[in-house]
Amino acid sequence: MNRPLGITVSRNIIDSQRMHPEATGELSGLLSELIVAAKTISAEVNMAGLADILGMSGKTNIQGESVQKLDEFANNTIKRRMAKSGYICVMTSEEEEGIVPVNEGYEGKYTLAFDPLDGSSNIDVNVSVGTIFSIHRRKSSLASGQGNLEDLLRKGSEQVAAGYIIYGSSTMLVFSTGQGVQGFTLDPSVGEFFLSHPDIKTPEKSIYFSANEGNYQYWDENMRRYINWLKEENKEDGRPLSARYIGTLVSDFHRNLIKGGIFLYPKDNKNPDKPSGKLRLLYEAGPFAYLVEQAGGRAITGDGRNVSDIEPEELHQRVPLIIGSKYDVDIAEDFLLGRR
Ligand code: AHG
Ligand code: MN
Ligand code: MN
Q1: What is the model's pLDDT at position 21?
Q2: pLDDT class of 64 with cuts at 50, 70, 90
Q3: FRET pair for 216, CA 20 to 30 Å: which of 118, 195, 226, 245?
């Protein structure tokens, strides 16, 4: 069978690097290493349901090696590969308490923040999960050696690249290096990502809204009014919107990006420890804000700030997130600020 000649992700990365004569190829190298980690995780995720059948569900597998939980596996895969990639100077992971150093002698000029496996509550029930990443240039380009906390606590607007991998009906890689958003689909028979969604632009207007309405009673009055309004009928502006909520941010974001939607995880009074909602600035809200803006959409917190403008204060900081099609995020903001 003759396959059409697809554009591989490596080809695409090299082509965009060519548009920057000053580029050293380090960002391209970093992305390539991350892609190898993603393919490794993808293979493992696809085997997850077979674990019992293959005798790999206990603490040790058939070879007597200890078996890790999928989120641990994803975390270790990225950590180990990136620690000696030579392209980054420090990392932070949603699964790690503090900063993660790189191997001595392998310090590079970028930093990496990642959520190794997003949607972990969906792993056991065969619902799609994902990996999210965010890349910054280290604070001082002249600095060398290990990076530090300061190199990681950076605004979303300063990212040089961000993206995600979704392990769904197919494995897809979606990322941006600041010139729009590109989507690639993994062809498992050749082990390559091919360009399938060039220059993704999110629809101006949403057809879906995504929020965990189980939290309704914990929301403030403005948020409740907005959700009620979305469900009212109005033929002129396309209401009511349809509801879609997977509970894996990667998947909810991906669907909304392609089809047009608004995702909301607002602040709530459910847990006094988490007054800012649930999602993390560095691993979830920040990278998605970058991507949605690159695709023509918008991401806000609902208290008058754009997510991309927030200066992080700690690694695991949580922020409210309202993200998606611009038309709808603008209206949501009016409601949340009590202007409507
Ligand atoms: P993680 O699995 O990385 O901890 O993230 C789960 C997050 C996110 O993916 C999703 O949007 C959200 O949790 C769902 O939260 P609720 O179950 O509270 O709706
Ligand atoms: Mn997550
Ligand atoms: Mn996670």
Answers
A1: 85
A2: low
A3: 118
Q: What is the pTM of this model?
A: 0.95
Atom index in ligand 1 nearest the CA of residue 120 equals: 2
* CB of 248 closer than 6 angstroms to any ligand 1 atom: yes
Q: Ligand 1, atom 18: nearest CA belongs to which residue?
A: 212
Band of the pLDDT at 47, cuts 50, 70, 90? confident
Indicate whether 160 and 234 sit together in one domain: no
Are 46 and 165 part of one and the same domain? yes
Q: How far is the CA of 240 from the centre of ligand 3 (A)?
A: 32
Q: Which of 143, 152, 112 is nearest to 31 (CA)?
A: 112
Domain boundary (197, 218, 252) is at: 197
Count, residues in the chain: 340
The Å distance, Cα 62 to ligand 3 centre, comes to 27
Those residues with Cβ within 8 angstroms of residue 23's Cβ, 6 or more apart along the chain or in another chain: 17
Query: Are residue 133 and residue 239 in the same domain, yes or no?
Result: no
Measured distance CA(95)–CA(150) in Å, rounded: 19
The response to whether residue 130 sits with its C-beta less than 6 Å from ligand 1 reads no
What's the mean pLDDT in 318-338? 98
- The number of the ligand nearest the C-alpha atom of 116 reads 3
Cβ atoms of 108 and 155 within 8 Å: the answer is no
pLDDT in tens, 192-244: 999 999 999 999 999 999 999 999 999 999 999 999 999 999 999 999 999 99
Residue 126: other Cβ atoms inside 10 A: 9
In this structure, are residues 241 and 296 in contact, taking their beta carbons and an 8 Å threshold? no
